[in-house]
Structures are given as structure tokens and as C-alpha cells.
Amino acid sequence: MINTNLKFWRRELSLTQAQMAEKLGIKRSLVGAYEEGRAEPKLATLVNMARLFGITLDALVTTDFSKRKNAKAAAQLQAQNAQMAADSGNSRPGGNLRILALTVDREQNENIELVPQKAAAGYLNGYADPEYLEELPKFRLPMLGSSGTFRAFEIAGDSMLPIASGTVIVGRYVDDWLNLKDGTPCIIVSSKEGIVFKRVFNRLKDNAMLALHSDNPLYSPYQIDVEDVVEIWEAKAYISSTFPIADLSLTRLASIVLDLQQQVSTMKKV
What we know:
Blueprint: H1 2-12, H2 17-24, H3 28-35, H4 43-53, H5 57-62, H6 68-88, E1 112-115, H7 120-126, H8 130-135, E2 138-139, E3 150-154, E4 168-173, E5 184-190, E6 194-203, H9 204-207, E7 209-213, E8 222-225, E9 229-239, H10 248-269
Parallel strand pairs: 1-3
Antiparallel strand pairs: 1-2, 3-4, 4-9, 5-6, 5-9, 6-7, 7-8
Helix pairs in contact: 2-3
Organism: Hymenobacter rubripertinctus
Protein name: Helix-turn-helix domain-containing protein
GO molecular function: DNA binding
């Protein structure tokens, strides 16, 4: 039902293929391919479609909304969803639906966009703009697999030592903030703090806040209001040109132990 429903909902929303592609963060050619059944959307794109249409993912892939009775049911469902969202207010902070823009390569594999330090300020304005993302450097890391959407951020400062300033953190997009586990290292994109790399402690159910902790004890923890949070990316890998400094005390100890072993071996031969 995906191709049928995509065409139906695009027309219901009075969108061109280009406009639909922009809202979903994909190329226009992909919308045409999906509608004609020449390609199948990835899970992340299906989720974004369901959110945009105001229906469940199950309904998107199993229900033919092009039939009049189902179209009416869809309209009722959209109204119910809107009312539920209005009634719930902040009772489920972090559970609001978001549409994530992304880019793909020629084989339709999702790219990992790199946000350098110099582009951090611009990212706050362009994170949802496919044209902005197209201008960012891109790469792929096959070792991360295909489960999830990834983005890379170059961090600044020494709050997360021994991970040094200038390190690139590769994060997987977090959709459900409510289930973030305490102590998870994440890239937090917020309207007030910008882009920061911290360990997150989940306080959403208690007071709609996230507590952010640095690994460097010289930096004090602080809290951030969920309303200020734009995106959360769970850290999955990092790339750095700075190698860890060896613990010289352990090196000397190992040397002493080796010398003693050699001396004992020599005494036994005598």
C-alpha cells in the first residue's frame, strides 16, 4: 500500500513531489520512484511519512486510503491525533514527533553528514533543510550497519576528556527521548546551548529536563529544558587524530617487573 498511500496523501496535502521530498528530507526522484513502486522506502523514511500524514506506520503499509471510506477514517484519525496531542500537553515530554532531514548516495544509502566546528552555528538553522545538509561533507562507515540514521559532529573543548577537542563523534539519531538510559553519551543539539557532547541523565518524566554531565570532573553538571532540545544523537563511535597519552607510571612499573623477572631467570641459571 505504500505507493498508493503516498500518492493519496500527497494529493490530500496538495503537495508536489518536490514539496513532499523536501518535507521528508529526501530527493524528489525518490518520491517518484516510491509512488511508481520502483523502489521501497527505508524504515526511517516510512516513519517520517506516517508522522507527516498523521497516521500510524501500520496503517501506512496495510490500509488503502485511496478508497473513500478509508479516506474519511483517515481524516477522523488525524483529528483524533491532533486532539490527543493538544490534551496531553507536556505529559509525555520528548515524545513529540519530528521529521528528520537526511541525504543519500547514488545507491540510495544514507550518508553520514559531518558537522564541523565552524558549521555548528549554522546547523541550528539548517538541521531540517535538505539543501543545507547537501553542502556538508559526507562519508559512510559500513561497520555501523544500516539500523538507524547517523550524523557526525566535531566537538570543541575539554569537558569530555580523554576525548580531545577536535574529535569527531558519530551519533545515531534518537527518536524516543523518554527511553534514554542514564549515562548515555550523546550529542545534544539545543537552541540555547548549541551543540554539546555530554552524558545524559533522563529527568523527562520527573520535570521535563535532561541532566548533562561531563566526564571531566572540572565541569559541573547542569540541566536543560526539553523544550530547548532540537535533536539528540547517541554516540556510537569517534574519530580522532589525537592518540591517548600512555600512563608513564604504569610503564615504569611494567619495566621494573620485567627487570625482576630477568634477574630471577638469571639467578636460576647460576
